[in-house]
Amino acid sequence: MRTMTALSQWLFATACGLVLAAGVHIFVVLASPHYAEGDAIARVQATLTSETAQVVSAPGGGDTWLPMPDPAFAVAACAFDLSEGPARIAALPGQSFLSFSFHTKTAGIFFAVTDRAAIRGELELVVMTPRQLDEARAEEDESEPSRDVRIVAPEEKGFVIVRVAAPVASLRPSAVAAAKAVSCTVDGEDDEE
């Protein structure tokens, strides 16, 4: 009888240890992106003060923090902080494929668009919070509705990744130039000056 009690106590302690270890493991895996210092949003924070996207990977090699960069794409990034106002992201698509993907730290990708959405040769998007969208709609003239493509972000801080294709070596310089030319500004900055 005494051996049964010792065995059951050992099994109970082992089961408790396994459940505790599994719980700690799950917590660490789910919490690690929140505490990561070298994540994508931390790397693009410097672009908040710039009005254009900064190239993070160019076709043909070079410095990059991307784990496995695609050699056929120029990749640029710019951060946005909607606490200062809506962010306006604009590009002039050329002959090469161009795409935007909008990211936040916890929600991941929340919107993506390609150069096919360009109107009259321009691709212009405004990222805003739900409150900023309501304010913009309230200020809008009903006879002349806004032509902006408005994107509602799930969080105030995030970043945009711009990809420009360079399928052949001769298109690499123009792809890098197109990626660098993407403007990322706080909407209404020019109006205030």
Describe this structure in words.
This protein has 193 residues and is an alpha+beta fold. The chain has two domains: 35 residues; 153 residues, Immunoglobulin-like. Strands 1-2-8-4-5 form a five-stranded antiparallel sheet. Strands 7-6-3-9 form a four-stranded mixed sheet. α3 links the parallel β6 and β7.
CATH overall fold name of the largest domain = Immunoglobulin-like
The sequence of SSEs as H and E is: HHEEEEEEHEEHEH
Number of strands: 9
Rounded radius of gyration (Å): 24 Å
What is the class of the largest domain in the CATH system?
Mainly Beta
Oligomer: single chain
Summarize it.
It contains 5 helices and 9 strands. The protein is α+β, with helices and mostly antiparallel strands and 193 residues long.
